Task: structure prediction
Amino acid sequence: MCNLLQLAIAVGILSVACVHAQTPGSSASAYPARTVRIVVGFAPGGGIDVVSRFYAQRLTESLGQSFVVENRPGAGGTIASEVVAKSPPDGYTLIMVSVTHAINATLYSKLPYDSIKDFAPISPVALQADCIAVHPSVPVKSVRELIGLAKANPNSLGYASAGSGTLMHVGMELFNSMAGIKLLHVPYNGAGPSTIAVLGGQVPVLSTSLPTALPHAKGGKLRMLAVTSAQRTPLAPEFPTVAEAAGIPGYEAIVWIGLLAPAATPSSVVNRLNAEIDRLTQSREIREQLATQMSDAYRDTPTAFAQLIRNDIGKWGRVVRETGAKVD
Result:
């Protein structure tokens, strides 16, 4: 009788343990069991925010739980990154970052988190090209002519960007270095204000995202010179790359956007989200919808995404050190 009682107690304990082992969030099959927060370090309406909301809606539809975007703008995205780095690693707080995450690793002398160790990469989700444009009054029609004008007028031409530390900033500093010129940086608080400044003629040159500049270029209010990707983008194939237009082999400044989780997030959760992003980006409908926002759907493995981040920390770190780029 005593043995039977002990056996029953043991079975009961095992059953309770199994129930606890299957609590929400403990396995890929149980995830997500509640609302998932995607933090964005920039204001609503920007390129990263738009892509984040696009994927949040698709993940909500496909995984059966709400994925909501929470904007925490400020300090080049570092405020949001700190929030997520210090959040519980349970898969319910994520962050959508861009290449700025890699740039910040060396642009800021001290960050309240480690850009690599404190995050678990899930997958990149999209690529966007930046571009170089000028006000129509500027007497240049190509990047080569812009370089010539800058050399003839050293330290007198300014370029507007969405802010210090953005790819629009360090990408142009790389251009300065490789072209042997010095365009003066005029930072603004976002792509909208910097574009308005060039449209109004306050600054002659604009470094911004392709989606921001393209409507104005089509309307004749800006003159597009080149895109910053390594190859011409199929979203606007009529514009040459900086590398081909300026004769600067190897120049590239591309914006990737991707999803991270706090470090120590279970691999089952990371892999489930990666697999879902993979499925979504293979959809022709999804690709076409992203294309309307001038974004290319893009995914990769968590390991490959981690390597991409490390590579860009190295690449843009060299640019920051060599050009003396600073957060103004």
